[in-house]
Structures are given as structure tokens and as C-alpha cells.
Write a structure and sequence with these properties.
The complex is a heterodimer. Helix content of chain A is 79%, strand content 0%. Chain A has helices spanning 2-52, 73-80, 84-116, 123-131, 135-149, 155-180, 183-191, 196-207, 209-225, 228-233, 241-249, 257-292. The radius of gyration of chain A is 26 Å and the shape is flat. By secondary structure, chain B is α+β, with helices and mostly antiparallel strands. Chain B has a five-stranded mixed beta sheet. A three-stranded antiparallel beta sheet of chain B has the order 8-7-9. Chain B has two domains: 26-143 and 335-373, 3-Layer(aba) Sandwich (D-Maltodextrin-Binding Protein, domain 2); 153-331 and 413-485, 3-Layer(aba) Sandwich (D-Maltodextrin-Binding Protein, domain 2). In chain B, strand 4 and strand 5 form a beta hairpin. Chain B is 48% helix and 11% strand. Classes of the chains: A mainly alpha, B alpha+beta. Chain A binds chain B through residues 55-56, 58-59, 61, 81-82, 140, 143-144, 147, 153, 231-232, 235-236, 239, 243-244, 246-256, 259-260, and chain B through 40, 44-47, 49-50, 53, 68, 70-77, 80, 83, 87, 89, 91, 217-219, 273-276, 279, 282-283, 303-304, 369-370, 372.
Chain lengths: 293, 487
């Protein structure tokens, strides 16, 4: 009898302990996540608010976390005095064109490798090896070559270079997707009268869209954030946003904290926006391409 | 008849010549003689670009010229600009550069003197502070640039810390001498130790002992801080045979002191560039700082400074040798402006260089706190407007002027930038306690030898020989015994 009464109590005690432990685990998990969020997003939050602050609030103590009268004055100054609009447009044009060019060139290359084992089984791996060359080792010969071809301070020079630099990774990723793609579907399309090109464009591409989104995303972000080639090959008309950001943030952090912060925000936002738009493809695409490659 | 024809021909030729000359050199008296022309300038920071905007309206009104300015970030500036120049071209007409890199840049600059004669330019050479005129402007004896930023270090202190009776009493009891703005590095270190970690302003805040910038970037912050001690202890960059002297007793003592006193500086000092310690000073969180002269303009700006009218200005400390204090503040490193040899608009660019260097125009640039440009003309220091620009501005300008006779230039030889980077990196290795001071400086010396060999020892030796003679004329020589006896 005593045992029968004791058992529900033990069970209840255990359930309670379990609930407490689970609650504690959740609490710790959320605390950890919150700490991580503060750690990673805190600096960005500070940059965003600084870009909206008045000059008198930069060094205020206690710190002004949220400006009482947020203003876009620093963004306006960035766009007027520091040619921010021009640099922003340059980055947008160069990154978008490089992304498109990388896709256009990589897809047929990857298709040839995947379907006909063009270049043997090692070509895609060999292409990837090209990515391992440090950019700094190439910068002088590339500069001389571009100078001789009249490609310095031009969109074409940077877009061509970024496309070439990015192709190996794009091909390597796409080969994985294409090898995974059932060749029977493609053959069915061709039996129905499609040419190989049409089958590729109308049948294969829509199905491997997540993979192409990954390629596009990486190409865009990589070119948007690229600094070394941009600083060497661009001139006054073609400078990119990353060069502008760095001109505010090196060599004696200057007095233009507001414009510097505004440039960082604008420098980060487009890449962030593209990543956000394509994020659902990103995990799927990476998982597929990464494991089947 | 024949004579009349000759006269007519002579008159026609004369008129033609006048017209030709007139078309080549637009009359300066004419309004906007270069209307419609735009020149391209290259600078290394947004604040330098901003500084040019301060004169752009007057420039346009007077000459009709516009400036389009490209900013190349400081850390990439030397490499990028020299890459362009060494390819035999330049997209820029007006070029900003660090005078310590003159040996690498100089051959790409257009000599000024022929243009001075041709265009009747007046650069006001007599008004330039002598030390800048002597060490910043010439390449192989030819005048090729004008100063733009007279960077030097002076010392700043918060008088609140030094004048509180309590503080004086405590300091005297601990160190057995009176609390005052330090004159020697020993006194500086004592003062930093004394003030660190408590509310020396009467508050209960935990304040810091002193400020510094120890980031090992391209601008070589830690190097500038080290070399002012190093030279005061009798050091020099090389001997006559290009053997580095940076790892001698003077260098090791200087670095050892910096490492030992690290705890008295704010956390993060190893990442500080120029502006962070200035902010700490004007916010009343450090009592002492030696830094660029532009700091004074922030000190005097009531919008951000809590020490307006409460700051002292003076010489960077030195070392007491045989009863005399030897000061060795640094030129750190300044900026110059020159006309590119490859420019297709040399004439108009010369006119622009003259214009922005005019006493009244350059005064606008060096007075504005946001430019971080520092005075380089005697007339800047004596300007009644500047001397009343903020409380104690006159004392600040007097301190700058008092510093000029003691200044030590950078090693102005080819690859100056490389030597500085290598040394700055090793200094920070020691400050981070990854290497001992001796080990770090030995490594830097090895790196310096490599740079010298790569650039050609004989060539470097010849260039250094000239600079060593210049420094000797300024009273700066290697003194091997000073490190031991400096107080």
C-alpha cells in the first residue's frame, strides 16, 4: 500500500525534476544564444546607431545607445562629399555582372565535366587548386597585364578578373549538382525533341536552381567584399564600396565617425540582403552540392 | 616702303609672340584663367580629401579649377601609388605623400623651381618652418614638394590631475620629487604609474595612467612612440655602414620601458591608432599623452572636450644626460604635396599647389580640427586668428614652435616604409610579450639588413650617408654611452 502511494510521488517528483532540468537547459540555451547574439550583433548595432547619431553623441558618457533624434545626415554627407553614390553603384554593377558572368561561364563548363567527364575526373579538382593561389602573389602580374590591356580603372577589367577568379569554385559546386541530376530526365526531354542546350536551360537549370543560387550568392558576396584587386585595379571612377569603407577606417581613424559608420552599414547591407533572400537555397544547395561533389 | 613692310612684319611677329605667350601662361590677374579644368589629386584618407574641400571654393573663384580627389586607404597607399608611378604613368596630377618616402617618390615628381620661374609662383619658402624646409621637400637637391601637414608630437597633460593638492602630496610621498608635467621618460613612467587605476580627478572612476597608440599598422604607431625614447637614449637608425643600431642598448632600454609600463595604459592600447588616445584625453580619462599636434584642436573643442582651458602643452619628454635634458621628439611623419611628373596638366597643377600652400589658404586647412592637418608655416603659428581659436591656443602653438629645434626625422632613405613596418611589427611583438625587447629588436635588425641587401647596400649607404650628415647638423648622432647614463 505504502509502495503504491510512494510510486506516484516518486513519478511526480521525477517529472518535476525533469521539468526543472528541461527549463534550466532551455534557459541556459537561450542565455547562450542571447550572449552570442549580443556578441555578434552588438558591434553592428553600435555601428548602425552611430551612423544615425549627431556628432556630440559619439563620445557621450554614459553612451547613447539609441539616438534621441536619429538623422540621415551622415548618409547624405557620404553620398555628397565622399562620392558614396558612385562607389555604391560601382560595387553593385561590378558584383552583379561578375555574378552573372560566373554563372554563365561556369554552367556549361560544369555540364561538360559532369556529363562527358571533360578533362578527366580531375579537372574540377584541378580548377579548385587555382583558388588556392593567394591573390597577393598574383597582384603585380595581373596589374601589369591589365595596364597593358588598358583595363585598369574600368568595369570590364574587374568583372573579367572576378569572373576568372570565381569560376573554379562555381564549377566545382555545379559539377556536384549536375552529377546528382538524373540524366534520364534530360534524355526524356531530348527524346521529346529538345536540343541539348534547350534541355539544359529549360529542364536542368530550374531543377538545380538551389545550386545556382548558392553560386550566385557566393559570387556576389565575394566580389562585393573583395578589397585587394579593387584597390589596385580601380581608379577614381570605378572605386568600390569596400575601398571607401577602408578609406574611412584605416590610417588614423579619422574624425568622420558618422560617415565611417554609414559607409560600413551600406557596405554590409547589400551582401546581407542577398544572403537573406537566398538563404533558403543556401543550406539546401550547399548540402546537395557539398556531399555529392 | 621696304622699311614700312619690315615694321609691319616686326609688329605682326611681336603680336603673334605675345598672343602665343598669353595662351601658354594665362594671366594671373584674369578671373578664373583656368576655367573648365579639373585636376586629379590622390590622398590617403577621407579627412585629407575633406581638407581640400575647405579651399575648393576660393580655388575655383580665383583660378577656375576644380579638384577631383581619389582616396586610397592609408595601409595600401604607398604600394598602390608607387605601383602606378613605377609603371611610368599616373592617373593623378597632384600627389599627397609621406615625406619619409621621398626617396621612393621623388623621381616621379616634377621639380618646382623651373615652374616657379616660368609661372612666377610664390611658395613663400621663407615662411616654412626651417626643419620641414630642410628635410621634407627636396629630392636629389631639387625642390619637388610643399608641406601639407606638419606632423610632429608634443605633450599634453590634464592640469586637473597635476594641480590637485592631494595628488601632489601623494606623489611627493611616493616618488620623493614634485608632481609636474614630466620632463624625462623616467618621470613620465613614474607619473603614469602613479595616476593609473584611480580617480585622480577627484571622482571615484578608475582612470588610466597615460595614453599611447601602439598599433603596428603601416603608419607605424608603436614605432613613433618607441623612437622618441630611443633617440633620447642616444640611438640612431644605422651606423655609417648601414649596420642597424636599433637593437643597441638605447633601443632595448626604450622598448623595455614601454613593455614594463604597459599596465598603466588603457586596455586595447595595442590596437589604438591616433584618435583613440586623443579621445581619452579630451574625455578626461588619461592625464598624459604625447601625440600629434592636431590633438590640441580637439582639446580646445568644447563640443567634445572636458578639458578646454585645463590642458597643458609642452615638449615630449627626453633623457637627462650629464645634468642636461635631451629632447628628441619625432616628425611623425607629415604629408607633402607634389606634382606628378606624368601629369598632362602640370601648369594648372603647379598653380593649384601654389594656391593651396598660400599662407591664408593653408591656414584654413591646418586650423580645422576635422582635417587633422598640422601647422607647417611660421605664419600659422603666429596667426592671431589661430592663437585665439580656443582657450590656450596661444600656449598650444608656442609649444609646437618650441618643439621644432629638437625634431628627429624618419630614416628618409629608399624603402623607409618597409623599415618602419618591420620595426613597428617587432615592437608590438615585444609589447604583446611574445618576444623579449632584445629578441624583438634583434629580429627587426635582421629584417632591416634584408631590406638593405634587397635595395642594394651601397646605394642605401650612400643615401643614408647624406641623411646622417643632415641629422648630425641637427645635433643628432649615435651616442653609445647615453643608454647607461640617461636618467
Amino acid at each position: 500500500m505504502a509502495i503504491a502511494i510512494e510510486r506516484p510521488r516518486v513519478v511526480a517528483r521525477r517529472a518535476k525534476r525533469y521539468r526543472v532540468q528541461r527549463g534550466l537547459a532551455h534557459l541556459l540555451t537561450y542565455l547562450g544564444l542571447a550572449a552570442a547574439l549580443v556578441f555578434f550583433l552588438g558591434p553592428f548595432f553600435w555601428i548602425v546607431t552611430t551612423s544615425l547619431k549627431g556628432n556630440e553623441d559619439f563620445f557621450a558618457f554614459p553612451p547613447v545607445w539609441i539616438p534621441p533624434d536619429p538623422s540621415l545626415a551622415h548618409y547624405v554627407a557620404l553620398f555628397t562629399r565622399s562620392s558614396g553614390a558612385r562607389y555604391f553603384t560601382n560595387s553593385l554593377v561590378i558584383s552583379s555582372l561578375s555574378m552573372l558572368a560566373a554563372l554563365v561561364v561556369s554552367l556549361p563548363t560544369a555540364y561538360a565535366i559532369a556529363r562527358w567527364r571533360f578533362g578527366g575526373g580531375l579537372l574540377s579538382a584541378f580548377l579548385l587548386v587555382l583558388r588556392m593561389l593567394p591573390a597577393i602573389a598574383l597582384i603585380i602580374p595581373i596589374y601589369i597585364m591589365c595596364k597593358m590591356l588598358g583595363l585598369t580603372n574600368s568595369y570590364l577589367g574587374l568583372v573579367a578578373l572576378y569572373t576568372v577568379v570565381y569560376i573554379p569554385f562555381a564549377v566545382w559546386l555545379l559539377v556536384g549538382f549536375l552529377r546528382d541530376f538524373p540524366v534520364e530526365i534530360e534524355e526524356a526531354a531530348m527524346i521529346d525533341g529538345c536540343s541539348r542546350l534547350r534541355a539544359l536551360v529549360q529542364v536542368v537549370v530550374p531543377i538545380i536552381a538551389p545550386g545556382m543560387a548558392v553560386v550566385a550568392l557566393f559570387a556576389f558576396i565575394a566580389t562585393w567584399n573583395e578589397f585587394l584587386f579593387a584597390i589596385v585595379l580601380t581608379g577614381i571612377e570605378t572605386k568600390t564600396m569596400m575601398v571607401l569603407v577602408t578609406s574611412f577606417t584605416t590610417g588614423g581613424t579619422d574624425m568622420f565617425y558618422g560617415e565611417a559608420s554609414a559607409s560600413v552599414v551600406l557596405g554590409v547591407l547589400p551582401a546581407f540582403a542577398v544572403a537573406f533572400m537566398l538563404q533558403r537555397y543556401l543550406v539546401k544547395g550547399l548540402a546537395l552540392g557539398g556531399t555529392k561533389g | 616702303m621696304r622699311r614700312a613692310a619690315l615694321v609691319i612684319v616686326a609688329v605682326v611677329v611681336l603680336v603673334g609672340l605675345v598672343a602665343l605667350t598669353g595662351s601658354r601662361v594665362p594671366s594671373v590677374g584674369a578671373a578664373r584663367p583656368y576655367e573648365g579644368q579639373t585636376i586629379r589629386a590622390v590622398v590617403n584618407a577621407e579627412y585629407v580629401k575633406y581638407s581640400l574641400t575647405l579651399v575648393e571654393k576660393d580655388l575655383y573663384d580665383k583660378l577656375g579649377v576644380k579638384i577631383e580627389t581619389e582616396v586610397i586607404p592609408a595601409d595600401a597607399f604607398v604600394a598602390k601609388t608607387l605601383l602606378e608611378f613605377n609603371s611610368g604613368t599616373s592617373p593623378w596630377d597632384l600627389v599627397m605623400f609621406g615625406p619619409s618616402n621621398m626617396p621612393d617618390y621623388g623621381r616621379h615628381f616634377e621639380p618646382l623651381e623651373p615652374w616657379v620661374e616660368k609661372l612666377k609662383l610664390d611658395f613663400g619658402m621663407d615662411d616654412i618652418v626651417p626643419v620641414f624646409a630642410k628635410v621634407m621637400l627636396r629630392f636629389q637637391g631639387k625642390l619637388v614638394s610643399m608641406p601639407y601637414d606638419g606632423d610632429i608630437h608634443i605633450m599634453y597633460w590634464n592640469k586637473v590631475a597635476f594641480e590637485r593638492a592631494d595628488n601632489k602630496k601623494k606623489f611627493k610621498a611616493k616618488y620623493n620629487y614634485d608632481l609636474a608635467a614630466p620632463k624625462t621618460w623616467k618621470q613620465w613612467d613614474d607619473t603614469a604609474e602613479f595616476f593609473h587605476g584611480w580617480g585622480w580627478d577627484g571622482s571615484d572612476r578608475k582612470l588610466f595612467g597615460a595614453g599611447a597608440s601602439y598599433k603596428p599598422s603601416g603608419s607605424g604607431y608603436s614605432y613613433h612612440w618607441w623612437r622618441q625614447r630611443f633617440f633620447a637614449y642616444g640611438g640612431n637608425y644605422f651606423d655609417a655602414n648601414m649596420k642597424p643600431l636599433i637593437n643597441t642598448a638605447a633601443g632595448v632600454r626604450a622598448l623595455d620601458e614601454m613593455v614594463r609600463t604597459m599596465p598603466y595604459y588603457p586596455p586595447g592600447v595595442m590596437l589604438f591608432e591616433s584618435e583613440e588616445p586623443k579621445t581619452l584625453l579630451v574625455k578626461g580619462e588619461i592625464p598624459l599623452l604625447h601625440s600629434w599636434t592636431s590633438t590640441g584642436k580637439r582639446v580646445g573643442n568644447p563640443a567634445e572636450s572636458v578639458i578646454v582651458g585645463k590642458a597643458g602643452f609642452g615638449l615630449v619628454p627626453g633623457a637627462e644626460i650629464d645634468g642636461k635634458v635631451i629632447h628628441r621628439p619625432a616628425i611623425t611623419p607629415g604629408r607633402g604635396m607634389a606634382v606628378s611628373k606624368y601629369s598632362k596638366k602640370k601648369e594648372v597643377t603647379m598653380k593649384v599647389l601654389e594656391f593651396i600652400s598660400l599662407p591664408d589658404q593653408s591656414l584654413k586647412i591646418v586650423m580645422d580640427a576635422k582635417t587633422i592637418m598640422d601647422p607647417w608655416r611660421v605664419s600659422h603659428l603666429r596667426s592671431p586668428i589661430f592663437r585665439k581659436a580656443f582657450p590656450d591656443a596661444d600656449k598650444y602653438l608656442d609649444a609646437i614652435e618650441a618643439t621644432f629645434p629638437f625634431l628627429v626625422p624618419d630614416p628618409v632613405i629608399p624603402a623607409a616604409d618597409e623599415y618602419q613596418r618591420k620595426l613597428s611589427f617587432e615592437i608590438t611583438e615585444a609589447l604583446a610579450k611574445r618576444k623579449s625587447p632584445k629578441e624583438a629588436l634583434d629580429n627587426a635588425a635582421v629584417e632591416w639588413e634584408k631590406v638593405t641587401d634587397r635595395r642594394g647596400r651601397d646605394k642605401q649607404k650612400a643615401q643614408w650617408g647624406e641623411k646622417m650628415a643632415e641629422m648630425k647638423a641637427l645635433g643628432i648622432e649615435y651616442q653609445p654611452d647615453w643608454a647607461a647614463k640617461a636618467k
